[in-house]
Amino acid sequence: MSSVLSFYQSAHEELRREGFIATTMPDPSEKLWNRKVMTMKREELDKLKTQRLKRIVKWAWENSEFYRKFWKSKGFDPEVIKDWRDVVKIPILRKDDLRNDLSANPPFGSIMVPELARRIRFVGATSGSTGMPTFQGWGALELDYFEEAQARYLWTFAGVRPTTVYANYLNMSGFYSWGPPVVEAAMWRCGATAIAGGGETYFSWKSRHNLIFRLWKVDVLATTPWLHRLIGEEAKKEGWETPFKVLLLHGGAAAKNTKEKLFQVHPNAKLAISVWGTTDGHMAVEVPGLDGQLVVWEDMEIFDIVDPKTDEPASEGERGELIATLLNHFTMPLIRYSLGDYVKNEFTTDPDPQFGITHMRFTEPIPGRVEWMFKVKGKLLLPIYVEDAVNEIADTTGMFNIFVYANEMDKLKIRIETYKTSVDKDYDAKAREILANRIGLQPDDVEIEWVEPGKTIWTGYKLQVFVDQRKKK
């Protein structure tokens, strides 16, 4: 056996042996999936992050041709990493760097460790909505840890146990890491019944999906906030109540008013939890009872935030670009990789009062991607700010599309679905006033295109809240 493969297998065995990947299901009365890891002392977590950061940087330098060349070109020496806080000394890796490498060295580029590339168990891919898709290779270790991370919040926050019925209405594409691997493994770890519905087929097979929800009495539904709303509205229209007790909100931050609307259309739901994640395997999950505070499993990854214009670390309390380092991805290391999300550089490490989890939490939601920011009359906005306002307008479905036609816009151009068969001037004026007041504009700065339900733009199971109409250079 080669030294590379031997190290990989030993690392995997170590993670399981030391309990970072749980190998047995807890007693159903246990609140936490992995109490030992989820309640580690802060000093132990810091020591662990330092050890794992040094290990993954050394591994990438020695085994990934891409990182050796990339880091040398930036003048980076792995020996400068003495502590996990030194992560900010590592050059930032962005999606275009990966795309260029993939184009020159298909299919995975030179970033993947060659010997482990021959043993991948799952191929993940981004949508490619902003250009060429990027691919990730997952080996046995990476999948095992990812499923462990899923089980932590499913068991602890969503109450998933044996006899729970869970329906996954995310993308069931074979390239989507939050699809089949979650349904086929993380759910089974919790002993639950898993239904791999697939949100992208709901529109073409609506009656069948609604029948499944009713017959199977689904307890937990995972999909986007917008599809959650649509399913609830469809149920009300057909005269039945959805059975869901827990709503897992994926694919985009849920505005406060969105959650309130979801509880109205899902009368049996007691909990709505925002789940942020990426195809690469990053995640942060809202802790019940702490609205908008998303916990990060620090034994898995390190986050830092930079000013997107300078790449320098953002000051505490400032907003910037989210950068992440996966600490246990050896097959295809992703070290100081830009996730493109726009977040506030403010975290708390106080144990949460309900579970006693010690891992850090974002103090506010992750509102959206840097590339989704737009300006109207010089005011910087994100779709989530608009979404909250749309949900205050009477007789709407909550579905909307923002059309971004220039870098500096003089009007907010938005398409909104309404139940009204005809829209009069008073209704339009009131809606523009609500939008304007909520986001700091004047009513004349807002232009609404009113459409009937079902006429907004979707991409699969995601509402396309940001429609970029700017001319490409």
UniProtKB/TrEMBL annotation:
Keyword presence, Ligase: yes
Position of the signal peptide: none
SUPFAM superfamilies, alphabetized: Acetyl-CoA synthetase-like
Keyword Nucleotide-binding included in the entry's annotation: no
Keywords from the named record: Ligase
Chain ranges of the AMP-dependent ligase C-terminal domain: 378-470
Gene3D superfamilies reported for this sequence: 3.30.300.30, N-terminal domain of ligase-like
One Pfam family per UniProt: AMP-binding_C_2
A GO MF term: ligase activity
Coiled-coil regions listed in the entry: none
Top-level taxonomic group: Archaea
UniProt name for this protein: Coenzyme F390 synthetase-like protein
Species the sequence originates in: Candidatus Aramenus sulfurataquae
